[in-house]
Write a structure and sequence with these properties.
The complex is a heterodimer of chains A (318) and B (300). Chain A is mostly helical and 318 residues long. Chain A is built from 14 helices and no strands. In chain A, helix 5 (91-126) crosses helix 13 and helix 12 (270-280) runs antiparallel to helix 13. Chain B is an all-alpha fold and 300 residues long. Chain B has 13 helices and no strands. Classes of the chains: A mainly alpha (318), B mainly alpha (300).
């Protein structure tokens, strides 16, 4: 297991290097300099700064490789992502305030997705080619096609017209009032979870169908075990392994969807921070959020891969 | 050929000659009716996009204050918005933008996927190692976040959305093409072509590419749906094609959003169009996958 963990951690180094390069290059090397844009549009974030001051504030006054080394050095050695041009506060601080909110939304959405996808996927496989199976498969494809922002809009507009009810949009932190916080987060989490559940449901069904045809399942039936025991103890545990891997692969979808949900339901997470920063052309914040999102996805995949090693003995002892 | 094989061929009944495309369409309708229905809707969507100017009864920005917030009727099929513009016409013009962005971005994405996937999978070695680590890193950034960041630098506009979506979806999709190339490169016919002295370019062009076309076509249909969804998400956030261009995403946000309580039809039409089109493309893509590439069946 130690060899597996070490190998996985070593493989992370080039990925993180390329990720940092993508973030760095995206903001700096795109034609049409950011500085020109900020000055020409008389941005408020540029304030009263002239070109030199703005270049210095963004760290653009150095050669490219020095800029990269200073930027990555600051992040690696002191966790410094620069200062916001708008609030003049450290970007790291702003991100750390918002990160738990997005994390909570993502976690709740994932819980919703799994609690829908696993039972439905299993049932669909066990009752293959029945009306219920067809209905659930069609529902999963439909959920893939329904955009989350439309679902979010419908949830805000129609209950308000029909019953005079609208979701709470005054954010309350979990630490202050957990019940009110969960009441506010659950609607966007359900919407986000619906979309995620569709892919998971399809994979769960496919994996269950594959496992249910294995010899050891036939043996379990031959022993006279009940259906519940065969499905839950013998089939589900083996079918779950690829499904857990999918959670890692869905992390970018989850974070992308969270941006939209945070905007619709005014949840002060990373997505809303990014959109506010884009509106104010606050490039240090944009770069910081971009990098942290990439890192979060890489870390989620690492955790999933390591748990995969714990779940699957074939991976552990390879 | 052996004598027995000759006999078998001679005994087989003559088949009616049909073109391969027509043959495929017949198979699609016979074996995958739901996918075929999706294909028909895709064609209608494409025609809507191409002939929006002819099909739309009104201009997309034709303001008529006396007809503001009219519910759906025979005159205004999807009702009117807060400025009295016909929502049906705006949805048709929205289809035009979705067709342009969806197909151009998917075309670019597929070309990028094929370029990276074929070179990475065929040549392997250091290029593959470095390219795949780059693809790993790229895939850790959600498409929507990449779009938001790039649009923040370049400003909103159709060309930048197409290019960024093409890049974002193309780099991620290269994994699928690479996987297909990896299995094709070990085939006997590739070894045979190489042993006859065929140059790499010829092997790639005449033998590898045609044999990975099935997953590439399926990838293209998936990418059209993904690009339409990503663009509409970006437009919903107010960072898409600038107004007054009527994208489906922007019709669900912006100033019209405040009037949805008075005119709930404003919240329905663009979302329904988007859902029906993406659903149809997905169904059509699934059917193509099953018919063209049985190995990928059930992989999603």
């Amino acid at each position: 297991m130690q060899v597996y963990i070490t190998r996985r951690l070593l493989a992370l180094i080039p990925t993180l290097f390329f990720a940092s390069l993508i973030v760095f290059v995206t903001v700096r090397l795109i034609p049409g300099n950011v500085i020109d844009l900020m000055l020409s549009q008389n941005d408020i974030s540029a304030g009263k700064m002239n070109r030199q001051a703005l270049e210095a504030a963004l760290g653009f006054d150095q050669p490219m490789h020095i800029q990269y080394l200073r930027w990555i050095g600051g992040i690696l050695f002191s966790g410094d992502l620069g200062r916001s041009l708008w609030h003049n506060t450290p970007v790291t601080e702003e991100i750390l305030q918002r990160l738990p909110v997005t994390f909570e939304l993502g976690l709740l959405a994932m819980m919703v997705a799994l609690s829908l996808a696993i039972p439905i996927g299993v049932y669909s496989a066990v009752r293959q080619d029945t009306a219920a199976d067809y209905a659930m498969r069609s529902f999963s494809i439909l959920m893939l096609a329904v955009p989350s922002f439309w679902l979010g809009t419908l949830v805000i507009v129609f209950p308000s017209i029909w019953w005079g009810w609208s979701p709470e949009i005054q954010y309350v932190p979990f630490t202050r009032n957990p019940i009110q916080n969960l009441g506010q987060m659950i609607v966007p989490a359900i919407i986000l979870g619906f979309g995620l559940s569709a892919i998971t449901m399809r994979l769960m069904r496919t994996m269950m169908l594959e496992v249910l045809r294995q010899d050891y399942i036939r043996t379990a039936w031959a022993k006279g075990l009940s259906e519940g025991l065969v499905v839950m103890r013998h089939a589900l545990r083996n079918a779950m392994i690829p499904v857990i891997t999918l959670i890692g692969l869905q992390a970018p979808v989850l974070i992308g969807g969270a941006v939209i949900m945070e905007q619709i339901f005014v949840i002060p997470g990373m997505g809303l921070l990014l959109l506010e920063a884009v509106g104010q052309r606050d490039y240090p914040v944009i770069t910081g959020v971009f990098l942290v999102v990439g890192l979060a996805v890489v870390l989620i995949n690492l955790i999933v891969d390591l748990s995969y090693g714990l779940l699957d003995p074939k991976v552990r002892y390879r | 050929m052996t004598a027995s094989a000759d006999n078998v061929l001679a005994a087989s009944p003559p088949r009616a000659r049909r073109g391969p495309l027509l043959d495929f369409v017949v198979r699609l309708f016979r074996d995958k009716p739901l996918g075929a229905a999706g294909g028909v809707i895709c064609v209608l969507f494409l025609l809507c996009g191409l002939f929006a100017n002819v099909l739309a009864p009104y201009g997309f920005n034709q303001i008529s204050p006396i007809h503001r917030l009219q519910p759906p009727s025979l005159r205004f099929l999807f009702g009117t918005d807060n400025l009295g513009r016909d929502v049906f016409s705006r949805c048709i013009y929205g289809a035009q933008l979705s067709v342009i962005i969806g197909f151009c971005a998917a075309g670019l994405a597929t070309a990028i996927s094929v370029a990276i996937g074929v070179f990475s999978g065929y040549f392997r070695g250091k290029f593959d190692l470095i390219a795949q680590r780059f693809v790993d890193a790229w895939m850790s950034f959600p498409e929507l976040i990449v779009l938001i960041v790039v649009v923040s630098v370049l400003g909103p506009g159709m060309v930048q959305i197409i290019v960024v979506l093409g890049l974002a979806l193309g780099i991620a999709g290269s994994r699928i093409v690479r996987g297909a190339v990896l299995s094709v490169r070990e085939s006997m016919y590739i070894h045979a072509a190489r042993s006859t002295g065929a140059k790499t370019r010829r092997v790639l062009w005449r033998h590898v590419l045609p044999n990975v076309m099935a997953p590439v076509i399926v990838l293209f249909t998936n990418r059209v749906a993904a690009a339409i969804l990503a663009e509409s998400g970006l437009s919903f956030l107010g960072l898409g094609v600038p107004p007054p261009a009527p994208t489906w995403g922007s019709m669900l946000s912006g100033s019209g959003r405040a009037y949805m309580y008075q005119g709930p039809w404003l919240a329905m039409a663009p979302g329904l169009c988007l859902t029906v089109v993406v659903f149809s493309i997905s169904m059509f893509g699934d059917a193509l996958r099953d018919l063209l590439d049985p190995r990928m069946r059930g992989s999603r």
